[in-house]
Amino acid sequence: MKFQVPRGTRDILPGEVERWHWLEERTRAAMALYGYREVRTPIFEATELFVRSVGESTDIVRKELYTFQDRKGRSLTLRPEGTAPLVRAYLENPPLRAESPARLYYMGPMFRYERPQAGRYRQFWQIGAELLGSAQPEADAEMIDLFRAILSDVGLKSVTVLLNSLGDSVCRPRYREAIREYFKKHVDRLCGDCKERLETNPLRILDCKVPSCAPVIAGAPSVLDSLCAECAEHFEAVKRSLAGLGIAYEVDPRLVRGLDYYTRTVFEIHAAGLGAQNAVGGGGRYDQLVKDFGGPETPAIGFSIGMERLLLAVGDSAVPPPQGPDVCVIALEPGAQVEAQALARSLRGQLTEPETRRALRVMVDVAGRSANAQMKWASKIAARWAVFVPKGPEGYAVRDMAAGKDEAKQPSDEDLRRWLLGRRDLVESPR
Ligand code: HAM
């Protein structure tokens, strides 16, 4: 029997996983600079959590949930997104509410039963940030600025910020009626799905990608024309804040997003080179969600970035190449294997040196290779130095692998370690 990775999922292997580490480190650093702290929520939640927040009539809830019953018959769902779980955690854990606004982030896999294609998976990773407890337009600007900062820190500079406002509970129902009326008049030209959306969720028609719907959508009334005075003012203030931060954006009145919890500001960032799936990420305000979950009035805003898409958009050039070990310890004779392993451990120094920068990456053969084969292996994995055991009368022999040059012998473990660290830091410091 041959097993395969489930459709729409993938293994992230050494060689590629370093790019993920790099992205994760960069993102964590950016989050820290803006004062956002990480929350790790479970991979699954009560199904109802997503039905109530993402929305019953959305594609995510109708078609894409991974839902199962546990042994006690509870309905659970693999999280399709991170905002609803974070809001649940926010309400459940008083320390998260100690500071207002709360600035939180998460990173991890999400699950949607979608048709797989480039940049679209059934298990995919998101980085998300949420700011809970401010209705101010500056919060919207901070979010978009943080989003941009993460992209720019990983070398993605040419992006397009799309911005829209969906109004609130005062003006959105008015708009929904207006477009329902409009699309009713053109119902014959709509695709089957859109005919259904007309009843359940007419705003979603604006997001339909079926070509035959495009001309009807193009003529639809703009949401921006039906904003109430407060929403219109908020939108203007967000635009002013963005301009103040020097962030370019395009207003896109057709941007509706695929989740129902949004109010007022919504945004997406698009990057070239992603084909049909050109949104690196998106987000928006959700001023009612905390209240809908039984919490106090807590206006909030957030975004998520698709990590696969971000890595695709960044390409290889920005990512530092994977590094080989600093040292391979070579056992010159079979009896020297224990000595080789002991030296390797002492060189790593991981127990005594808390700072990884001072720790050496050391590998040693455990496959019973001959001395010759160990040397071949050391050069294949791009070790910088080979150190030979058993130790000779003058100390350890050391070879610079790239230069093929023998270095001065080192009398003791400690001398060897200091010499290696000194040389490595010398080489690494200009970076
Ligand atoms: P979303 O637009 O559904 O928003 O997803 C955000 C990003 O996740 C997308 O722009 C895309 O990069 C990535 N993504 C979504 N589905 C897939 C997939 N099947 N395969 C690969 N990548 C995918 C949210 O999830 C909201 N929670 C964002 C948010 C946070 N709004 C407020 N706070």
| Overall radius of gyration | 28 Å
* Proportion of helical residues: 25-40%
State mean pLDDT (0 to 100 scale).
93
Q: What is the number of helical segments per DSSP (H or I, 4+ residues)?
A: 15
Sheet having the most strands:
8 strands, mixed
Q: List unreliable stretches of 5+ residues.
A: none
The distinct ligands, each listed once, are: histidyl-adenosine monophosphate
Q: What structural class is derived from the secondary structure elements?
A: alpha+beta
What general outline do the C-alpha atoms trace? elongated
Spatial ordering of strands, largest sheet: 1-5-6-11-10-9-7-8
Strand % is 15-25%
Measure the end-to-end span: 49 Å
Number of strands: 16
Keyword list:
single chain; 431 residues; alpha+beta; five-stranded mixed sheet; 15 helices; 21% strand; binds histidyl-adenosine monophosphate
Task: Describe this protein's structure.
With 431 residues, the protein is of the alpha+beta class. The protein has 15 helices and 16 strands. The chain has helices at residues 17-33, 47-54, 59-63, 83-92, 94-97, 137-153, 172-185, 192-200, 214-218, 229-244, 289-292, 307-314, 337-348, 371-380, 413-428; strands at residues 37-38, 44-46, 66-69, 75-78, 102-111, 123-132, 159-165, 250-251, 263-271, 279-285, 300-306, 327-331, 362-364, 385-392, 395-400, 405-406. An eight-stranded mixed beta sheet has the order 1-5-6-11-10-9-7-8. The mean pLDDT is 93. The chain binds histidyl-adenosine monophosphate. Residues 81-83, 112, 114, 120-121, 124, 126, 128, 130, 258-259, 279-284, 286, 302-304, 306, 308-309 line the site of histidyl-adenosine monophosphate.
